[in-house]
Design goal:
By secondary structure, the chain is mainly alpha-helical. It contains eleven helices and two strands.
Length: 240
C-alpha cells in the first residue's frame, strides 16, 4: 500500500530508522557510488543497493519505476559517451563520430551510477514520510542555525519538494493520457510532433504546480503554520 509522496507502508529496519540517519546514509552512499570506477566497485555498490531493497521490504517495481521513466535519457547518455568520449582505437568511425570501447565503458559506468543513485532516492522516499524527511533535514542542519542559516525554511523546502514531485509526475501522466485520447496516440506520430506535444504539456504542468503551491500556502496559513512555531511543528510530526 502506497501513501502520498511514494511512501510504502511496511515494517522494516529502514522504515523504523531515523530520517536524519537515512539522509546522512544517502549522502554517504551517493558519494561512494560516484567514486566507484572499476567494474568490481560498481558491482559491489549494486549489491549494496540490492541488499538495502531486500531489507526495506519494498518491491523492485517501486524502486525500478523511476528508472523505467528515465530509460530514454539513460540510453542517450550511453550513446553520447560511446560516440564522443574518445577517438582512440575506434571500433566504428563516421566522420567526427567514433564508436570506441573506452566510450562504451565510460557510458556504462555513467548509466550504472545514475541508476544506482536514482534507486537510492526512490528507496528513501519509499521508506520515509515527507514530514519525516523535513524533520531529518531540520535535525541535520540544526548546527548551522547558530550561524544564522535559515534551516527551518530549507527543511520545509525539501519536505515540500519530496512530497509534491511524485504528485506532479502523476498529474503529468494524466495530462499525457488525456492528450493522447484527444489527439491520437503520440507513439504513432513523428519525432517532431511528439516533441511538440511534450512541449505543450509544460504550460498545464506549470499551472498545476502553481495551483498546488497556492493551495498548500493557503492550507498552511489556515492552520497557523509559522517557521519555527512549536505548534505547527507538533502537528507536522503527528501527520501520518
Amino acid at each position: 500500500m502506497r501513501a502520498a509522496g511514494g511512501y510504502v507502508w511496511a515494517d522494516s529496519p529502514l522504515h523504523r530508522a531515523s530520517a536524519s540517519v537515512k539522509l546522512a546514509g544517502l549522502v554517504v552512499a551517493v558519494a561512494l557510488v560516484v567514486l566507484a570506477t572499476t567494474p568490481a566497485q560498481l558491482a559491489l555498490a549494486a549489491f549494496g543497493v540490492a541488499a538495502l531493497v531486500a531489507v526495506s521490504r519494498v518491491s523492485w517495481g517501486v524502486v525500478g519505476r523511476p528508472l523505467w521513466g528515465l530509460r530514454w535519457f539513460l540510453l542517450v547518455v550511453l550513446c553520447l559517451n560511446a560516440l564522443l568520449f574518445s577517438s582512440a582505437d575506434p571500433l566504428l568511425s563516421l566522420g567526427p563520430v567514433h564508436l570506441t570501447a573506452a566510450g562504451v565503458a565510460q557510458g556504462a559506468r555513467v548509466v550504472v551510477r545514475t541508476a544506482l543513485v536514482v534507486a537510492l532516492g526512490a528507496l528513501l522516499t519509499a521508506t520515509t514520510l515527507p514530514q519525516q524527511v523535513t524533520g531529518g533535514v531540520r535535525d541535520l542542519l540544526r548546527p548551522l542555525a547558530r550561524l544564522g542559516v535559515p534551516t527551518e525554511a530549507a527543511a520545509l523546502a525539501v519536505g515540500v519538494t519530496v512530497q509534491f514531485v511524485p504528485t506532479l509526475l502523476r498529474e503529468s501522466r494524466q495530462l499525457m493520457r488525456a492528450q493522447a485520447l484527444r489527439c491520437g496516440d503520440g507513439a504513432t506520430r513523428g519525432i517532431m510532433r511528439r516533441a511538440v506535444s511534450y512541449v505543450r504539456l509544460l504550460v498545464p504542468v506549470f499551472v498545476a504546480a502553481f495551483r498546488r503551491a497556492d493551495e498548500l500556502s493557503v492550507a498552511m496559513e489556515a492552520r497557523g503554520y509559522r517557521l519555527g512555531g512549536r505548534a505547527a511543528r507538533a502537528r507536522e510530526e503527528r501527520c501520518p
